[in-house]
Amino acid sequence: MPEQWKSEPTTAMNSFVLNNWLRENIRDLKPYSSARDEFDGEAMVFLDANESPFDTDFNRYPDPHQKELKSAISSVLDIPASNIFVGNGSDEAIDLLIRASCNPGQDRILTISPSYGMYTVCAAIQGVEVDTVLLNADFSLNTDRLVNELKPNHKLVFLCSPNNPTGNVLNVSDVAEVLKAFSGIVVLDEAYIDFANDGGLVSLIDKFQNLVILRTFSKAWGMAGARCGLALSQPGIIQVLDKIKYPYNINSHTQKLILEALKDRQKLDERINILVTERGMLVSAFKEIPGILEIFPSEANFILIKVESPDLIYQSLLSEGIVVRNRNRQPLCQGCLRISIGVPEENQLLLKKLKELLT
Ligand SMILES: *Cc1c(COP(=O)(O)O)cnc(C)c1O
Fold it and tell me: What are the pLDDT tens digits along the chain (359 aa)?
């Protein structure tokens, strides 16, 4: 935890009150009680959930509370299980946070721009308006502008660090300034934090009752196909998310796969090391290509670059079978392509083609 926060009092940092933040119907909601909710203990014969009794490996419902999975995540992240929500991708947590707090047509969310598109999409599905605050030209947070934009009907502020598509980490003191100024919840999306130099801000969830950190197994952990992500926050907020999720949101196959992945920290570290090394290699190599006008510093597993004719380069790469992300039409990203770091052979192929196109 950054030194300056250690001495801060836990309460009275801002005026966040969970019960005021929640929509009334969510606050009063009595959750669905599943068959497995109502039973606790060791049983040999399960005749409570109308499942098939024939063993197909998948004939039983998964644990709706994900106890074993949460306990394993708790050890790996070194935070209590009561601070952990497990979602069907971190996208589920984004959706649930909006649905828990925002009355359609009335409440709003605030997000930075450019950033990840799902905050806006989830809000739009729910009929919730989105306000955006442009980042500074160097993609740092403009806290003055953001704090000035805050209105009483803003329920959530979405921040992303390292930010997608820009790749930079947000300044801790800027994030803390928003946390202190805002009486709603600040969601800090750390999908790419495993590739960053610092370990992120999970340690601040005890200090700030209005902080939710998002993590995902989709990027560094290599489990995008399994669909599993996390929201980390104070227990009151976790209880709300658990109350409103689909009872069996994480299927039993995914629970098993993530438990397996969690056991192999060494493989995770090896893969992160390879990608971080390749990122450095690509940055150096990009500097030698005259047609690459700008390379934005990245602490993620992708690099944002600026070129003269992004649409043309995008199409030319595509015709060579290489697909990158065209971010040319995103705010502050004119001319920009976002390139994920591949395995070394893929990166060499990309470099060869880029050199041909841009030299
Ligand atoms: C990829 C990504 C995610 C991951 O979402 P999942 O639903 O967990 O796969 C979340 N946030 C950002 C910013 C991302 O780029």
Answer: 555 555 555 444 678 999 999 999 999 999 888 887 887 788 889 998 999 999 999 999 999 999 999 999 999 999 999 999 999 999 999 999 999 999 999 999 999 999 999 999 999 999 999 999 999 999 999 999 999 999 999 999 999 999 999 999 999 999 999 999 999 999 999 999 999 999 999 999 999 999 999 999 999 999 999 999 999 999 999 999 999 999 999 999 999 999 999 999 999 999 999 999 999 999 999 999 999 999 999 999 999 999 999 999 999 999 999 999 999 999 999 999 999 999 999 999 999 999 999 99
Q: Separation of 16 CA from ligand 1 center, angstroms?
A: 26
Distance 358 CA to ligand 1 centre (A): 31
For ligand 1, the distance from its centroid to the CA atom of residue 218, given in whole angstroms, is 7
Which atom of ligand 1 is least distant from the CA of 218? 9
Angle at 313 between CA 310 and CA 316, to 5 degrees: 150
* Tokens of residue 178, six digits: 């928003």
| Nearest-angstrom CA–CA distance, 228 and 197 | 24
- Compute the distance from residue 192 Cα to the ligand 1 centre, in Å: 8
d(Cα 293, Cα 305) in Å, to the nearest integer?
Answer: 7
Q: State the DSSP code for 225.
A: G
Rounded to the nearest angstrom, the distance between the alpha carbon of 254 and the centre of ligand 1 is 17
Q: Which two tokens stand for residue 28?
A: 């009063």
Residue 220 CA to ligand 1 center (angstroms) comes to 11
Q: How far is it, in rounded angstroms, from Cα 92 to Cα 90? A: 5
73: three-class secondary structure by DSSP: helix
Closest ligand 1 atom to Cα of 227: 9
121 is written with which tokens?
Answer: 């999409």
Residue 221 beta carbon below 6 angstroms from any ligand 1 atom: no
Residue 288 CB partners (closer than 8 Å, separation 6+): none
Contact 253, 267 (CB under 8 A): no
Residue whose Cα lies nearest atom 12 of ligand 1: it is: 191
The residue contributing the CA closest to ligand 1 atom 6 is: 89
The verdict on the CB of residue 162 being under 6 Å from ligand 1 is no
